[in-house]
Specification:
heterodimer, A: OB fold (Dihydrolipoamide Acetyltransferase, E2P), seven-stranded antiparallel β-sheet, 12 strands, 12% helix, disordered N terminus, B: alpha+beta, Alpha-Beta Plaits, 3 domains, ten-stranded mixed β-sheet, three-stranded mixed β-sheet, 19 strands, EC 5.4.99.25 (chain B), metal-binding (chain B), mitochondrion (chain B), Pus10-like (chain B), tRNA pseudouridine(55) synthase activity (chain B)
Chain lengths: 184, 529
Amino acid sequence: LSKIPCGVVAPEVTMPVVPLFVDRYFIHWYKADVKGKSCEDHCIPQHSNRICVTTLTESHPVLQSGKTIKSIPCQISTNCSRLQNKVSGKCKRGAQFLTELAPLCKIYCSDGEAYTVSSCVRGCSMEVIENILHKPSILQEKPSTEGYIAVELPKFEESKNITEGLLTQKQYEEVMVKMTDCRT
Amino acid sequence: MFPLTEENKHVAQLLLSTGTCPRCIFRFCGVDFHAPYKLPYKELLNELQKFLDTEKDELILEVMNPPPKKIRLQELEDSIDNLSQNGEGRISLSQDGSIASKNSNLNVCNVCLGILQEFCEKDFVKKVCQKVEASGFEFTSLVFSVSFPPQLSVREVRSFACIKLYVKKQSLSLGRDDIVQLKEAYKWITHPLFSEELGVPIDGKSLFEVSVVFAHPETVEDCHFLAAICPDCFKPAKNKQSVFTRMAVMKALNKIKEEDFLKQFPCPPNSPKAVCTVLEIECAHGAVFVAGRYNKYSRNLPQTPWIIDGERKLESSVEELISDHLLAVFKAESFNFSSSGREDVDVRTLGNGRPFAIELVNPHRVHFTSQEIKELQQKINNSSNKIQVRDLQLVTREAIGHMKEGEEEKTKTYSALIWTDKAIQKKDIEFLNDIKDLKIDQKTPLRVLHRRPLAVRARVIHSMETQYVDEHHFRLRLKTQAGTYIKEFVHGDFGRTKPNIGSLMNVTADILELDVESVDVDWPPALDD
């Protein structure tokens, strides 16, 4: 279920009788310490139709208080801009293919730190950073929903395998308990 | 009155001697009125014989090469007498030009292979009609379609080309285009016979089709020889069993020059041993269409059967609950269900219901009174409480267009039960009532993105009406443009629908229930029940 922010009890927030939209149709997968960087965890909600959304978890440094995002360039390398991804038709022709380690974007903060967001799953890129481009702060305001980084469509044949390298919600929570240095 | 005249005599003589039947002789001579063809075969033979008999002196055949020879009329008469006998051998023009009169085998016409012999007569028609009656179709008219083996065209062209060779140009005043088409003559004879036997008129526009397909395996090679003359007329095409389709054969016959043709086929075709075989006699009725409007009262019913890997995930479906009854009553082979848009499994359709149309494929029964249709509607409604049907009626194929028009152009109204994370008061939702023609942009919802193109759809929410329920719930009635994703307008779909109820109210919103209140299409016409 959607987490209540740590240490804060909000009396008005109540859970509906049925699970929220993000939980009804999505299974949440996690990758901790992406690329070996401590606390840079990603959360990948996966829809029952296999589509994956890349989001950051609340433990991610960029979402900690005091951080201001300066810019999120879409140019990954000289030849690759995520915004050049033009997808057409039902078969999604023209989509860039992403591997698990593919960089989606780099987030530059005003304190000089830069964080790379990674794909975490294999699939055709549907959309990358479009939603946060106009207002990067959305990433910090609503990291689990509106502040998503990317949408990917895994290959049909691979739908069962793509989450092999990822942690389930339960597994992630266990990892979190062990690693206390993410919590300030 | 016998349709052939003096100038047809040479041709008629020659054709008969090569084994051509009287009706084909008529066709070659350009006889284009129906009556002569309808006479019985035996009578035609006798008449033909009498006609050819009028000159007792010898017929002189002038040929280009070799020099003219004489044929004794008596020999020709003998061979005609042998027509009805089942003998071996045939009449042929031998090298020195004399007709070798063996026992003729004019039993099988060397051009039509029996089509204008036994296959156009009453007995055969009766056989076909028996099959038609046994098939159990209900019909008030019929269209008759017949298919002949392509080699008949080859034989006709070949016969004509050879005859031309042997007869002086003046006496052959007819060209290849003057030959009456085999299919035409066949229909002149058989249409009245079918009409009489089945008691219905032949009508080219009829939905009920009787089709007969003939084949003649013995002479399939006739077509293959064409390929020798013109190899690039017969290029092997993908997925085609035989390259020698009727189309390809006709094209080749038109393309090949006469002299090339004659090099390959220097003499007329011979009579085969057997007549054509009937490959199939089939009946089929064109599709009929039934339209209506349906209500859906279940939150657990898909529009179409939900089957994954052969396993049915949810019992039944809207289309099956309606169509199964129609399939049975119309005795149709299969159906195609379509509707003016559709709703999700968990959404009810209230109000007037949603227009739908069902195409019933190859129905055996097609005539129903409006009373019978009303009863059928009642039957469907009695058999399930998950769906209800109204305005059930027969419609034309053209009318379906109205329904699909509705899908893209007409408005719909909905009622949704909405949950909010923050506590709300009545005043917090009032502003929604005042918003008119709200423009929203919807990226393809994630839940359908795997099977729909990625796009942004601009849509309009025409009006909204709220009803407060409690601190975390309210009901929302909305009137929207066709093609609006309502659920996504409520919960925002990761912010991919903007604006959405959550963003308008600055809360996290979710949709708990959705009903379609109306589909604003005025088709099919409402019936007073």
